[in-house]
C-alpha cells in the first residue's frame, strides 16, 4: 500500500482481501434487506456499489483517491470460466444448439440497434456519432477492455479528446445497470408465467451415471448448481479431497487453455485467456473417458459441489473487486449525455428482453434465466451476466442450458462480431 500525490494505491493482496470483505458485506445486506433478495440482486453487486460510493465520498471529502491493483482479480475470472467449461456436458451442448443460434442472432441484431440508438441520442446533443458509438457496443457489449482498445483510435480519428473518459464512464454505468436489471426481469417472467426448472431428461441422467459412477446417487437426488451450492449440497458438505481434486482439475484445464491460447494466437486470432480455458474445460470433460480418470486415481469433478463452490467464490470476488474499484467521481462532468444515452440503451435492452428474447427462446424457465443474463451480455460484461444468472438459479433452481449458451455467445462469438461491427459503424455513421 502506497500513498503518493493524493492517490492511495492498494496492492493485489489487500485488494483481494477487501474484495472478500465487500462480498461479506453484500451478503449481509442481502440477508437483511428483503427487497434485494426478492429482486435477486447479486451479493457482490450490493457490496461493490456500496464501497464504490464510499470511496467516492472519501475522495470528495478529502481529495484522496483509492486505486486497486487488479491483476489477481483477472486470475479469478479465469478460474470461474474454467469451472463453467468443466461443468459443460456434451448433451447440454447439443441441446443448446438451436437456443444458442437464436441467442446469437438476437444479440447481433441488438448490437446494430444499440449502436443506432447511441448515434441517434448523441445527435440530439449535437455530438459526433463516434460519441454514440462509445455509448454503444464499444463500451456496453465490449466492456472496459474493448473501450480501452478503441478509445485512442476514436480520439485521434474523430477529434474527441475525452473519448477514453466517455467510453469508460459508459462501460462503468452500463455494468451497474446490467447488474440491477437481470434479477427483476427474471423474477417478473418466472412469477408471471409460473415457470419451474426443467426435469433432467432420462438420457442426461444415464449419461451422468456413466460419467461418474461414484456420484450417480448424488446426481439423481440433488439439484446441481453451476455456481453456488444447493441446500442439499450445503447439508452434505465438501471434504478436503473433493476441494483439492477440483483445484487440480481447474489447474489442469487452465494449463491446457494457456497452450490453446498460444496456438490460436499463432494463427492470428487473439482471444482472452478465459475463453480458451473455458474450451479446455469442455474438452477435458467430454473427450476423455471417465474410466481414464479412475485409472489414474482421480475423480473428474464435473458438476460437483466443490467446483460450484469455487465458481461462486471466484465470480463473487471478481465482481466485488470490479465494482468497488470504480472511480465514480470521474464521471460527473459527462453526466447528462452519458445518462441520456444509457437510459435509451437500458430501455432498449428491457424491451428486447421481454418482447423478443424471451418469446423466441421458448417462454420456459431456461429462457427466463437467459433473460436475466442478457442485460449482462448487452449492457455490462460476461461476468455480470453470469452473476445475474447465478443469483436467479440459486433462488429458483438450476438451468444448465443457460450456463452453456450465454458464456459461449458473450465470451466468444460476440467479441468477434463486435470487432467487425465497430469499424462498420465508425465508417458509416460517425
In short:
By secondary structure, this protein is an all-alpha fold.
Write the layout of secondary structure elements.
Blueprint (H helix, E strand, L loop, with lengths): L1 E3 L2 E4 L1 H21 L1 H5 L4 H20 L2 E4 L2 H17 L2 H6 L1 H28 L4 H6 L8 H16 L4 H31 L8 H10 L4 H6 L9 H6 L3 H27 L6 H15 L2 H6 L9 H20 L10 H26 L4 H15 L2 H15 L3 H29 L2
Parallel strand pairs: 2-3
Antiparallel strand pairs: 1-2
Helix pairs in contact: 1-3, 1-16, 3-16, 4-13, 4-14, 4-16, 6-17, 6-20, 8-9, 9-17, 9-18, 9-19, 13-14, 13-16, 16-19, 17-18, 18-19, 18-20, 19-20
Structural features, described:
The protein has helices at residues 12-32, 34-38, 43-62, 71-87, 90-95, 97-124, 129-134, 143-158, 163-193, 202-211, 216-221, 231-236, 240-266, 273-287, 290-295, 305-324, 335-360, 365-379, 382-396, 400-428; strands spanning 2-4, 7-10, 65-68. Strands 1-2-3 form a three-stranded mixed sheet. A hairpin with a 2-residue loop joins strand 1 (2-4) and strand 2. It is 76% helix and 3% strand. The radius of gyration is 21 Å and the shape is globular. It has 430 residues and is an all-alpha fold. It is built from 20 helices and three strands.
What would you call the structural class?
Answer: mainly alpha
One letter per element, helices H and strands E, the order comes to EEHHHEHHHHHHHHHHHHHHHHH
Q: Give the CA-CA distance, first to last residue.
A: 43 Å
Percent helix: over 70%
Main sheet record: 3 strands, mixed
Number of strands: 3
Strand order of the largest sheet: 1-2-3
The radius of gyration computed from the alpha-carbon positions, rounded to a whole number of angstroms, is 21 Å
Amino acid at each position: 500500500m502506497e500513498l503518493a500525490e493524493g492517490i492511495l494505491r492498494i496492492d493485489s493482496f489487500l485488494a483481494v482481501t477487501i474484495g472478500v470483505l465487500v462480498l461479506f458485506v453484500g451478503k449481509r445486506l442481502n440477508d437483511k434487506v428483503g427487497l434485494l433478495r426478492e429482486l435477486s440482486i447479486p451479493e457482490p453487486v450490493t457490496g461493490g456499489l456500496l464501497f464504490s460510493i464510499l470511496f467516492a465520498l472519501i475522495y470528495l471529502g478529502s481529495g484522496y483517491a483509492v486505486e486497486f491493483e487488479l491483476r489477481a482479480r483477472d486470475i479469478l475470472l479465469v478460474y470461474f470460466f474454467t469451472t463453467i467449461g468443466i461443468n459443460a456436458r456434451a448433451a447440454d451442448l447439443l441441446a443448446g444448439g438451436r437456443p444458442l443460434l437464436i441467442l446469437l442472432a438476437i444479440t447481433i441484431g441488438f448490437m446494430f440497434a444499440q449502436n443506432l440508438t447511441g448515434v441517434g441520442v448523441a445527435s440530439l446533443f449535437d455530438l459526433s456519432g463516434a460519441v454514440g458509438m462509445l455509448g454503444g457496443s464499444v463500451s456496453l457489449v465490449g466492456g472496459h477492455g474493448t473501450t480501452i482498445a478503441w478509445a485512442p483510435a476514436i480520439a485521434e480519428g474523430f477529434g474527441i479528446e475525452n473519448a477514453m473518459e466517455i467510453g469508460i464512464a459508459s462501460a462503468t454505468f452500463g455494468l451497474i445497470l446490467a447488474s440491477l436489471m437481470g434479477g427483476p426481469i427474471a423474477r417478473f417472467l418466472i412469477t408471471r408465467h409460473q415457470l419451474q426448472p426443467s426435469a433432467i431428461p432420462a438420457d442426461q441422467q444415464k449419461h451422468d451415471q456413466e460419467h461418474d459412477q461414484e456420484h450417480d446417487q448424488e446426481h439423481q437426488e440433488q439439484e446441481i448448481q453451476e455456481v453456488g451450492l444447493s441446500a442439499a449440497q450445503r447439508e452434505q458438505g465438501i471434504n478436503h479431497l473433493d476441494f483439492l481434486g477440483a483445484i487440480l482439475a481447474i489447474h489442469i484445464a487452465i494449463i491446457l487453455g494457456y497452450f490453446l491460447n498460444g496456438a490460436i494466437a499463432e494463427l492470428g486470432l487473439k482471444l482472452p485467456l478465459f475463453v480458451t480455458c473455458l474450451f479446455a474445460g469442455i474438452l477435458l470433460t467430454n473427450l476423455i473417458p471417465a474410466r481414464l480418470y479412475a485409472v489414474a486415481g482421480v475423480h473428474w469433478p464435473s458438476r460437483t459441489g466443490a467446483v460450484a463452490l469455487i465458481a461462486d467464490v471466484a465470480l463473487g470476488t471478481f465482481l466485488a473487486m470490479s465494482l468497488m474499484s470504480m472511480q465514480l467521481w470521474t464521471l460527473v462532468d459527462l453526466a447528462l449525455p452519458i445518462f441520456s444515452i444509457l437510459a435509451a440503451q437500458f430501455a432498449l435492452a428491457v424491451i428486447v428482453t421481454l418482447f423478443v428474447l424471451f418469446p423466441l427462446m421458448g417462454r420456459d424457465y431456461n429462457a427466463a434465466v437467459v433473460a436475466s443474463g442478457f442485460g449482462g451480455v448487452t449492457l455490462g460484461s460476461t461476468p455480470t451476466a453470469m452473476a445475474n444468472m447465478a443469483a436467479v438459479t440459486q433462488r429458483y433452481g438450476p438451468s444448465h442450458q443457460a450456463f452453456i449458451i450465454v458464456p459461449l455467445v458473450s465470451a466468444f462469438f460476440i467479441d468477434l462480431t463486435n470487432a467487425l461491427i465497430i469499424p462498420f459503424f465508425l465508417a458509416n455513421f460517425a
